[in-house]
Amino acid sequence: MTMPTTTFHPSESRGKADHGWLLSRHTFSFAGYHNPERMHFGALRVLNDDIVQAGMGFGKHPHDNMEIISIPLSGDLEHRDSMGNVAVISQGDVQVMSAGTGITHSEYNKNTDREVHFLQIWVYPRQRNLTPRYGQISLNPENMHNKLMQIVSPDAEGEGTWIYQDAWFSMGNFDDKQNFSYQLHKEENGVYLFVLSGGFSVLSHKLQARDGMGISGTNELEIESVKPGSALLLMEVPIKW
To answer: In terms of Cα–Cα distance, which of 114, 76, 71, 75 is closest to 93?
Structure first.
């Protein structure tokens, strides 16, 4: 029996950038943080854990040929882009932007009295130079209690929102000692687990808050929450694309 391949990224091992207005932790190489052993996990290229100070943000800047997913954890983030979209995303929302042939956008903390905390995730698309698009959904927390809820998929008609890649993202909030399983959609895919809070046990590994683990070479995972108030982001992505 072939054992799954795992790559463990403890929270404290992530890259760090403190710009005053922005505190960012990088799971994978990004901007001034370069680690040749941590360039990506399959099609998952960027996993940034960002805190933006009150009233501050990212000015207008370009992207192309990347699927960009933003998940606010607290606060409110205002988005504007060259496609004409103006939106505010808050905790419980998921935003996707397919940069395709090229877009520009800006992201600002909507509030002047508190910070905004969000995850910025980049995934390589299945093909280049696609038509840019924008999507946004709001999640029902009841659908994430002690189970995983699909929030991103390749299916425009499926649960959650969608991107141009054979990738499936799920989130869940768990009480202590909850056992659950995850069945991969494609045999050649892998899974990256990122612990938002609490802790989980998977393949005899104990993962704490902000730890990450990449797993490939398996079709199913058995996971257990090991603390009250545990929250997990699970990202299934192609290992080769």
So the answer is: 71
